[in-house]
Design a protein that fits this description.
The protein is of the alpha+beta class and about 110 residues long. It has 2 helices and 5 strands. The strands form 2 sheets. A 3-stranded antiparallel sheet has the order 2-1-5, with no helix packed on it. A two-stranded antiparallel sheet has the order 3-4.
């Protein structure tokens, strides 16, 4: 299975960004100024590939600081999916994954 999503690639081409092998090019893998915001979040959605290459998405929750940024290009999530989750073993070692930080408590009704 390709890690390149055809729709995402099309949007990147229209924006003049990205290319083969790129995930979301928004931050060019530089967490930078967003590190403080990421550390405040208590809910993240992660996507990645299992051992067979199948892509999955899961959510993790924790206290503020359970997601950390020790440098400008690294995010560390101090939690693992539960036993039985297809991504349980995908995040044991450093690797490539997608992440969205969520802050539902700040949504206006």
């Amino acid at each position: 299975m390709s890690r390149d999503h055809e729709g995402e690639q099309a949007v990147q081409r229209m924006a003049g960004e990205g290319g083969p092998g790129w995930g979301s090019s928004m931050f060019d893998a530089d967490v930078g100024a967003f590190a403080g915001l990421v550390r405040q979040q208590r809910l993240v959605a992660l996507s990645g590939a299992d051992a067979e290459g199948n892509l999955w998405c899961t959510t993790l929750a924790g206290d503020e600081g359970f997601v950390d940024s020790p440098d400008r290009r690294t995010l560390v999530v101090h939690a693992l999916p539960p036993v039985g989750d297809p991504l349980r073993d995908a995040f044991v070692e450093p690797g490539d994954f997608g992440m969205v930080v969520l802050s539902p408590q700040t949504l206006l009704g």
